[in-house]
TrEMBL record:
The keyword Coiled coil does not apply. Belongs to the methylmalonyl-CoA epimerase family. It comes from the Bacteria. The gene is mce. It is an enzyme of class 5 (isomerase). Its EC number is 5.1.99.1. PROSITE patterns: VOC. GO terms for biological process: L-methylmalonyl-CoA metabolic process. Residues 3-131 form the VOC domain. This is Methylmalonyl-CoA epimerase. NCBIfam families: metmalonyl_epim. Gene3D superfamilies: 2,3-Dihydroxybiphenyl 1,2-Dioxygenase, domain 1.
Length: 133
């Protein structure tokens, strides 16, 4: 795993959170993107070589809607950049970790993504991200 690609933060109101994080970071978000398959709208802030990804639910059955209902707003996942997501999925499976999707799926910002169960990583939901060439 190469670096922290982004930290995902679940928010109830994306526009309000954009204003809050623009004030925190001292600069505006650089893009927004809807990921329909995940039921989310996202916005991104650069921070060094990493990003903050704000996520707001667009449907009641999205992971973000369920997480906010159960756990409130806040840090939702940590995403690690990888060169070869299929190799990392296989490596983690062989280590005994449960992958939530064994086939990489389309994420935001031109990435293939896969998630690991938070109960297998001390209560942290881990996302793997591979740049689509
Ligand atoms: C924008 C696209 C992409 C990107 O490009 O970056 C994204 O970031 S998409 C982000 C949203 N998508 C996902 O999170 C997909 C993967 N997530 C899931 O499959 C589920 O959310 C989940 C993690 C399996 C949880 O599913 P849920 O139906 O909510 O089950 P439970 O409520 O029963 O949760 C089981 C257990 O895990 C705890 N939990 C849930 N979410 C988290 C979390 N984000 N961080 C830490 N722990 C979490 C939950 O509290 C349960 O624990 P117990 O209550 O102790 O049983
Ligand atoms: Co993410």
């Amino acid at each position: 795993m190469k670096k922290i690609e982004h930290i995902g933060i679940a928010v109830s109101d994306l526009e309000a959170a954009n204003r809050t994080y623009a004030a925190v970071m001292g600069k505006p978000h650089y893009k927004t993107e809807a990921v329909v398959s995940e039921g989310v709208n996202t916005s991104f802030f650069e921070v060094g070589e990493s990003k903050i990804e704000l996520l707001a639910a667009t449907s009641a059955d999205s992971a973000i809607a369920k997480s906010i209902l159960k756990r409130g707003e806040g840090i939702h996942h940590i995403a690690f950049a990888v060169d070869d997501i299929e190799a990392e999925i296989n490596r983690l499976k062989n280590e005994g970790f449960r992958l939530l999707n064994e086939q990489p799926k389309q994420g935001a910002d031109n990435k293939l993504v896969a998630f690991m169960h938070p109960k297998d990583a001390n209560g942290v939901l881990i996302e793997l991200c591979q740049e689509i060439q």
